[in-house]
Amino acid sequence: MPQDELDIRAGVTAARDEAARAIDRLDTARRRAARTRGDQAGPDAGAPDLDRPARERPAREQEVAEAARALADAARELTRLVRDYG
C-alpha cells in the first residue's frame, strides 16, 4: 500500500476517533446539564426542548443546541467520507 494511502487512512482514523470522543463529551455534558436542571427544577425538568423556537430559549441553551447540530452534521459528513474512502 502506498505511503499516501496509509497517511490518508491514518488521518481518517484519527478524525473518526476524535469525533467519537467529541460525541462522548457532548453526551456527558448533556446528561450533566439535565441532572443539574433536574436538581434545580424538580423531577419534571428534563432536557431542553430543542423544538421550541430559538427566541424562546435562553442564549446559552441556544448556543449548545447549535453546537450539537454542528457536531451532528460533522459526524454525518465524516461517516460519509469514511464510507466512501475508508
UniProtKB/TrEMBL annotation:
<feature type="region of interest" description="Disordered">
    <location>
        <begin position="26"/>
        <end position="65"/>
    </location>
</feature>
<protein>
    <submittedName>
        <fullName>Uncharacterized protein</fullName>
    </submittedName>
</protein>
<feature type="compositionally biased region" description="Basic and acidic residues">
    <location>
        <begin position="49"/>
        <end position="63"/>
    </location>
</feature>
